[in-house]
Design brief:
56% strand, single chain, elongated, Jelly Rolls
């Protein structure tokens, strides 16, 4: 423990730094986000679960590092993809962007299957996570990509907030 920190019998601490700021934003339950086939598209995270520093902007869908909060961050992003026709999904990808450029990504190649009224990719959701150095004013965004052989591709909102981006500063 750092000098001056204390640990009480119940296990809580005082004098220790915490992992803030913390943010968690998601694509709201209002509607799916239609995207253009084979085009990397910014995900419209328009609602928040938590934002300790008020640093996630739901109008431009990005987290901006607040003043005095530079450091290493853990960032994770997940998207749920679907298509209007069965077995047409060729591939998907999820990206974490730093300052407008790809920083980290993951992808999946495979066919889709039926689930309710939407045709979802196998596994339904795709996730990417990373640890990243961020300076004051740097910003983070989530992007998605889907390639289909036919039909209308979408990023789904889901009642379970299944398309999201989250992060926190590491201490």
């Amino acid at each position: 423990m750092p000098s001056g920190a204390t640990l009480n019998v119940a296990g809580s601490t005082s004098g220790l730094p915490d992992n803030t700021p913390v943010f968690a934003a998601y694509l709201s339950n209002d509607s799916d986000q239609s995207i253009t086939d084979s085009t990397v598209t910014k995900i419209q995270f328009d609602a928040e679960r938590i934002d300790t520093a008020g640093a996630f902007d739901t109008s431009n869908y990005r987290f901006t590092v607040p003043s005095g909060q530079a450091g290493k961050y853990f960032i994770t992003c997940e998207a749920k993809f679907s298509c209007s026709t069965q077995n047409t999904v060729v591939g998907t990808a999820v990206y974490i962007y730093k300052n407008g450029s790809t920083y980290h990504s993951t992808n999946y190649t495979g066919a889709g299957y039926i689930s309710g009224t939407q045709y979802n990719i196998l596994g339904n959701c795709l996730n990417v996570s990373t640890v990243i150095d961020l300076a004051e004013g740097d910003y983070i965004e989530g992007y998605g990509f889907i390639k289909v052989s036919s039909g209308t591709p979408k990023i789904q909102e889901g009642n379970d907030q299944s398309t999201w981006i989250e992060g926190f500063k590491l201490v």
